[in-house]
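pinned: reference chain
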Amino acid sequence: MAHVPKDLPVSSDLSQKEDAVTSSYQKLVEGHGTLEHGNVAGCLTALATAAGNEQLWKPLNFAVLEACSHKRSEVRRAGISCLLSIIETVGEEYMVLLPECLPVLSELLEDGDEEIAGMAKECVRQGEELLGESLEDSLR
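pinned: its structure tokens
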């Protein structure tokens, strides 16, 4: 399995204290302190937007959901961040894939990491808003 090296050279605008607690993984995937050079979540969101079609979204959605189910919390955090960004950007058209997302979102709502659980809750809220109906029964 590939690993992000601890000494990955990432241009940073974070203070030394913030930089010390931000892993190279977060810098690369989530774009923390990368001086607007972009991040993986933004790239995947742009890819989903450009694809504009359910058949092209399916493999992307599958990969994002796999990240959301990963044993490492930073990978789950990156995955749910990508999913939220895609839902917010693509919007109602992406709701055709929501049924595939619900089992994973249900698990993430109970994640021990409050940030992950909060982003999962926001994904559900966005889905409910876009669909105009509650997803509570589907999350059981």
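why pinned: Residues 1-5, 8-15, 17-21 have pLDDT under 50 and may be disordered. The CA atoms of residues 128 and 135 lie 6 Å apart.
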